Every structure is written in C-alpha cells, then in structure tokens.
Amino acid sequence: MEEATRQHFFHHGEEGHEAEKRNCHFCQIRSFTTHAQYPVTIINTEDDEVLRASFHFMHSSVLGKGVEPTREEFLTGCECTDGEDCQYDTCNCLQDVEEDDSSDDDDDDDDEAATTDSPHGAPYRKRVYAYHAHGAKAGLLRSKILTSRNPIYECHESCACGKDCPNRVVERGRKVPLQIFRTANRGWGVRSTVDIKKGQFVDKYIGEVITAEEANRRRARSHIAQRKDVYLFALDKFSDPDSLDERLQGPPLEVDGEYKSGPTRFVNHSCEPNLRIFARVGDHADKHLHDLALFAIRDIPRGEELTFDYVDGVDDSENDALDPEKQKDMTHCLCRSKSCRGYLW
Ligand SMILES: C[S@@+](CC[C@H](N)C(=O)[O-])C[C@H]1O[C@@H](n2cnc3c(N)ncnc32)[C@H](O)[C@@H]1O
Fold it and tell me: For the chain, is the Cβ count within 10 Å smaller at the N or the C terminus?
C-alpha cells in the first residue's frame, strides 16, 4: 500500500493528525458534500505515483487578491415565481440569450424547444432555455448550444424562482462520480464509473481566480510558460473594450487550477474530445467571474476517459503545429484520435 493511503486509512481516525488530514487527498475529497452520492476516487494500477502533495482538492473556486465579487446591492435575479417561466425570454436571466432560429436536428422529442408558446391570454413568449425541457433528455444541453460557443445563462441565488427551478443545472453541481486514474502515458486522467449522456453537465473547472497581472507573474515564474498556461483559463467570454462594465473592458481574470482545484483539473486533452467547456453565467452582474462548465458533447460510456480540447475554437491557421519550424519546440499530443493535430502546444 502506498504511503499516502496507509496514512489515511490507519492514522486519520486518531487524535493529533489534523495538519496531516488537511493535506490528505482522501480527506479532502471525503469532505465534499456530494461524497456519499457522487464520490471522487483515485486509482493507480500503472505505477507507484501518487498525486502531488502540493495539490489541494477544493469544492469551489477561491478569489485571489484584488478579485472582487459584485456587492450584494448590485445583484439582481429574475422575478419568476414558477420555475416553468424560467425557460422563456420573459425571464430576466435569459434576456441576453442570442437565439438563432435554426432547429435542432436531434430535438424531435422536444420540439417545443425552438417554438413560440402562447398560453391563454398571455403575450407570446419564446422558449430560449439552453436545456431540453421534456422527456428523457430533460436537463440535457440542447444540441444547438452544444455545437455553439454561446454562453449559458442560468437562474441563481438572487432569483425569486426556487432551488428546483429547471434553469439551475450547473448551480446544482456535479451529479456523476468521477475517478482520477493513472494513464499509461499521460500522467493522471479522469473517467466516470457511470454512463454520461450527450448534453449532460459533468463538472466545473475551478481554481484560484486571479487577476491578469497575477496570472502573468505566475507564467513568468513557471519554468515553461506554456506548461503553466495549461492550468490557466481566462474568464474572457464577455471581455469587450467597449463594455459599459469596466471590469469587462481590460484583460480578463483567470482561473488557476494547478495547485487548488477539483477533479476536472486532471482531465487530459484530446483533438477529438468528449467534453466541451462552456461559459456559464449566474448573476449578470458577475459576468467577469463566469463559470467554466464542462458538458458531454456525445454519449460517453462508463470507463471511457473524459477529455476536452485544450485549444477549442482556435482557428487552424493559428495552429503552431502546422509550422514545421515551431514543431521542434512543441509537445507531442498522445490522444491517438484519428484527427489528432500531432502537438499540444
Ligand atoms: C491539465 S493537466 C492534465 C492532468 C495531467 N495528466 C496530470 O497528470 O496532472 C495537463 C498535462 O497533462 C498532459 N497531457 C494532457 N493531455 C495530453 C495529451 N493529449 N498528450 C500528451 N500529454 C497530455 C500534459 O503533460 C499536460 O501538461
């Protein structure tokens, strides 16, 4: 039995091991409120490696120095008293949804998704909800959104609708058990022990939310800046130099998941991934702090490694892997997919 496991199982019930417990990965994941139902487990059948001691599992992101959430008096939510109403463009939370009218090719069992409803006597309103509303696919992200890079707008704490409002999928958190496992050639990876459906929310990418200046300091301190980049995600979905919100005008905040994060920090890259990251907004006043939510873009059988494309959305013309000069300094991609681009960065 590896040393970390031995310490946890034989000594952590005893008095006087508090500091050790704080630094124990098993104790950290056991403290997740979802542990009994959707545990995170760690398994290594490849070699003797254990997770780095410097890594700490967390439930949610922490805000670094200089990162401020919006003050309570500026937070606003919807006034819908019936969660059903939180699927239409009349819900304040869905005001910014950019709707296109093309129909979803696989939405035939939920064909209201793109139609206009007219309840008796009520004004016309349009369903702009990001998720399927009915049937077996209820709560799964619609394929039109899955193939887009549109943000997802959800109801949240400041809304009048209840906790069971259907438009709070990401807020309700991860509903799948995840297993961090040792891969044969790419360090740790992540899989689930249950089947995951296309459009299903998997988990958020969390970490320390830091200013752009701090992110650059950390890049500079890192031995190879691009290696640090792999853990840094810019919260730039709403960045706009002309924005009326000055927090969106400048360089965006970034999430650093290298040392403090959740299980998704161990998800590897694939050029043909089964997950994609979406920007998810709760309170519109907190767009500068939007979530990074991972959803399945196809059905994923239990045990299959979960992956996302680290450079999703990067135009092929910007791809350094196409430049033979740059290739010699780049890291080989080991995703083994048919359309592998050959290099990670
Ligand atoms: C965010 S981490 C993922 C977890 C990582 N495997 C670990 O053990 O901590 C990113 C690192 O994983 C490795 N990696 C991820 N995807 C890879 C791929 N497709 N090919 C080669 N290495 C990969 C690279 O070393 C990369 O720097």
Answer: N
| pLDDT band of 338, cuts 50, 70, 90 | very high
Q: What pTM was computed for the model? A: 0.91
Asked if residue 266 has its Cβ within 6 Å of ligand 1, the reply is: yes
Give 204's strand partners: 293
CB of 40 closer than 8 Å to CB of 55 = no
> Is the shortest distance between the CB of 230 and ligand 1 below 6 Å?
yes
From the CB of 341, is ligand 1 less than 6 Å away?
Answer: no
Q: For residue 70, which amino acid is it? A: T
**Per residue in 85-121, pLDDT tens?**
999 999 999 999 987 655 554 554 554 444 555 556 6
Q: Which fold has domain 32-68+173-327?
A: Beta-clip-like (2.170.270)
Nearest residue to 258 via CA among 304, 293, 215, 292: 215
Residue ranges of alpha helices (H) inside 85-142 are none
CA of 180 to the centre of ligand 1 (A): 13
**CA count, 13 A, side-chain hemisphere, 295:** 27
Which residues are catalytically annotated?
205, 310
66 HSE (CA, 13 A, CB side): 10
Which ligand 1 atom sits nearest the alpha carbon of residue 231? 1
Residue nearest to atom 27 of ligand 1 (CA): 227
